[in-house]
Amino acid sequence: MNGAQMQKTTAIEVGDVYRLAPETSFSGDKHGSNWRPCGVAEHLPEVTVILLSRTTQPPRGRRRHVESPAQPHIGLTKPGWWTDRHVRPLAPERLRDESLAEYLGSLPDAEADEVRRFWLVTKDLGPML
Amino acid sequence: MNAIRDALGNTYEVPSVGPRNAPKAGEQWVVNVESQDVATVVIAVVRDTYVIAWPVTADADAAAWPAIRLGNNLAWPHCEFGMDTAALSRRVTAVLDERTTSDIRFALWERENIPVPTQPKSQSPESRQALNLVCDQAWALGDWSWPNNKIGEGVFSADLLHEAGVSPSDIAALLQVSPGVARKLADGEAVPTREQVSLVLGQLPEGTIADDLLIPVEGPEADALTHPEFKPRVVSLQQKMGGSEGSARSAVWQKSMRAARQAGATNSPEGVRTRLDQAFRDLLSKDD
């Protein structure tokens, strides 16, 4: 477990932010023992959740991104970025498993909308931002 | 042929050689990291130095909808993930055309019928376990990256050194290197050793860690070096140097940067390619 726990009991939605355990990767995660902040970009019910892993490393070159200001109330203590380089799939039931996922809260509506539009463009289903 | 062990523990074979053109959506590629063939993927989206890809496994009863059937393999479009182009080794074959690849992603998003044969919609504990294993592997493959800011692969952040008041002359004195070498280190044009990183960290505010001090190498040479055509020479160089694949790549980048600073050097694709070719020749022919 990693700090104060809170589990979301309602539907998984775009913009939900979780902290994921290193055990979600074969390699134990390059972030070592740190849990990794991820935001929901797409939910295929009963199949998978597509997450964007939030990075605090500035995006290189022309890498597409959404800026994400620090939001300490949901555990995002530094400014960061959502990029489609860091796309990660996960079974939805794993987001309900508190040994693997800690629900941190939801992004503000404006940032969640940006993430949704960003992911639509990545899916080639929406206009370029 | 080379054997690939998939996320479910099954094996399948892929040709040991193949084209290394720029990847395109719908192609199946071998992923090779640290000189090992570790997986194959189907390319879904191509970006400048990374791709979004679908995991591939051998045929498996445990795989459920919407895994799609590709001959003796299965692709998992619902488990797509981002990975660096530098991890791609060679093309196996074009399993789908670009339009069909896009249509599959659209169908998943819109909950429409997938326009290619899929596994049945039968969920079971075994299918959920298989899904978790495939997702776990996707996270691991996505975690491998180059360029990155690991020690031996990344360079000093010039901005951070400037903010901390650490000058090139400070670095020259601290690391006992020439002013020219110190300048390159301070400007992020040379890769510092572990010992050099440790010494510089000692001059920075308490709490500063290597992750803060180091940034990935960047520029035209770094971007070009992610192209799959360089993989065989990267593997040869890694085996010669004995370190990580990333340290071999960063050594090539550093060598090419020396040529990039010379008069008349251009950033045209041909100029960048020539510098990388020369860097590989120099490093691969260098006596140990």
Tell me what you see in this structure.
- The complex is a heterodimer of chains A (129) and B (288).
- Chain A is α+β, with helices and mostly antiparallel strands.
- Chain A has a single domain, classed as SH3 type barrels (Roll), CATH 2.30.30.
- Helix content of chain A is 14%, strand content 33%.
- Chain A has a 6-stranded antiparallel beta sheet.
- Chain A starts with 15 loop residues before the first strand and ends in a 7-residue tail after the last helix.
- Chain B is α+β, with helices and mostly antiparallel strands and 288 residues long.
- Chain B is built from 11 helices and 11 strands.
- In chain B, the strands form 3 sheets. In chain B, strands 3, 4, 5, 6, 7, 8 and 9 form a 7-stranded antiparallel beta sheet that branches. In chain B, strands 1-2 form a two-stranded antiparallel sheet.
- Chain B is elongated, with a radius of gyration of 22 Å.
- The model of chain B has no long low-confidence stretch (mean pLDDT 94).
- Chains A and B meet through strand 5 of A and strand 8, helix 1 and helix 2 of B.
Structural topology:
The complex is a heterodimer of chains A (129) and B (288).
Chain A (H helix, E strand, L loop, with lengths): L15 E5 L15 E9 L3 E8 L9 E4 L11 E11 L1 H4 L5 E6 L2 H14 L7
Antiparallel strand pairs in A: 1-2, 1-6, 2-3, 3-5, 4-5
Chain B lengths: L1 E4 L5 E4 L12 E7 L2 E11 L3 E9 L9 E3 L2 E3 L5 E4 L3 E7 L3 H13 L14 H19 L11 E2 L1 H6 L4 H8 L3 H8 L7 H8 L8 H4 E2 L4 H5 L6 H11 L3 H16 L8 H17 L3
Antiparallel strand pairs in B: 1-2, 3-4, 3-9, 4-5, 5-7, 5-8, 6-7, 10-11
Helix pairs in contact in B: 4-5, 9-10, 10-11
